[in-house]
Structures are given as C-alpha cells and as structure tokens.
C-alpha cells in the first residue's frame, strides 16, 4: 500500500515517579555492596549459642535486704542452635527449648536477628 496522509498524530511522554527514579535507582544499586550473608547460608547448619543472664540492677539490689552480691550465681548456658529452611531456628537446652524465626539485617547484611 502506498503512503497516504490522512491526519496528524502527536505523542507526549509523561514521566511519573517510576520512570523518573529509574536511572537514579540503577546508580544506587550499582554502588551498593552485596550482603555478606544470606538466609540460605544458614539452612541446615548448627552453631552453639551462649546465653548469659542480665546484670544485677544495683538500685533494686540496694533495696532488697536479702540480696547478697557475694552469693550471686550467674547461669551461663551453651546450647546447640539449628537453622531450618523455613527461616526458623531451634535451640535445645537442658531445660529449655527455644524456637523462633531468624533473618539477616544490617547495612552490610552481617547481623543475625
């Protein structure tokens, strides 16, 4: 078919938030370092967790007439902790079983919560 001029056509480009930020976000992503750890790095692995008690509050200890600082026992426990593929963990102690969820946080991806 030969070309024929029937009418006029015009286009206008509208830049919304998504299009306007695209270049800046790509530059920011390129400057970011990859996280140090990923959740899958911990799946099926076992570590040892050391649980230590909180220190004694001196204000309450001064008010308690039965408190004797020389006889305070600190119960330090070490228990194996296992990480599972559904982002949960299990820690088996002598008297306690701890269960919960875990994740990786921090700017560098190096903190476990």
Characterise the protein shown here.
The structure is a single chain. The strands form 2 sheets. The protein has a 4-stranded antiparallel sheet, with no helix packed on it. It is an alpha+beta fold and 113 residues long. It is elongated, with a radius of gyration of 29 Å. It is 19% helix and 24% strand. The chain has helices spanning 17-31, 58-63, and strands at 46-51, 77-83, 88-92, 97-101, 104-105, 111-112. The termini are far apart.
Write the layout of secondary structure elements.
Layout: H1 17-31, E1 46-51, H2 58-63, E2 77-83, E3 88-92, E4 97-101, E5 104-105, E6 111-112
Antiparallel strand pairs: 1-2, 2-3, 3-4, 5-6
Task: Please tag this protein with its features.
about 25% strand, about 110 residues, 2 helices, alpha+beta, two-stranded antiparallel sheet
Low-confidence stretches: none
Q: What's the tally of helices?
A: 2
The main β sheet shows up as: 4 strands, antiparallel
Beta-strand fraction estimate = 15-25%
* Helix content percent band: 10-25%
Q: Give the SSE order as H and E letters.
A: HEHEEEEE
Which structural category fits the helices and strands? alpha+beta
Short description:
The chain is of the alpha+beta class. It has helices spanning 17-31, 58-63, and strands at residues 46-51, 77-83, 88-92, 97-101, 104-105, 111-112.
């Amino acid at each position: 078919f030969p070309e024929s001029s029937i009418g006029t056509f015009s286009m206008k480009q509208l830049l919304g938030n998504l299009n306007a930020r695209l270049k800046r976000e790509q530059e920011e992503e390129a400057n970011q370092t990859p996280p140090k750890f990923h959740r899958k790095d911990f799946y099926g692995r076992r570590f040892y967790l050391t649980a230590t008690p909180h220190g004694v509050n001196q204000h309450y200890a001064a008010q308690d007439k039965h408190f004797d600082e020389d006889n305070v026992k600190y119960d330090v426990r070490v228990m194996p902790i296992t990480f599972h593929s559904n982002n949960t963990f299990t820690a088996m102690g002598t008297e306690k079983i701890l269960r919960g969820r875990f994740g990786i946080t921090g700017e560098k991806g190096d903190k476990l919560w």
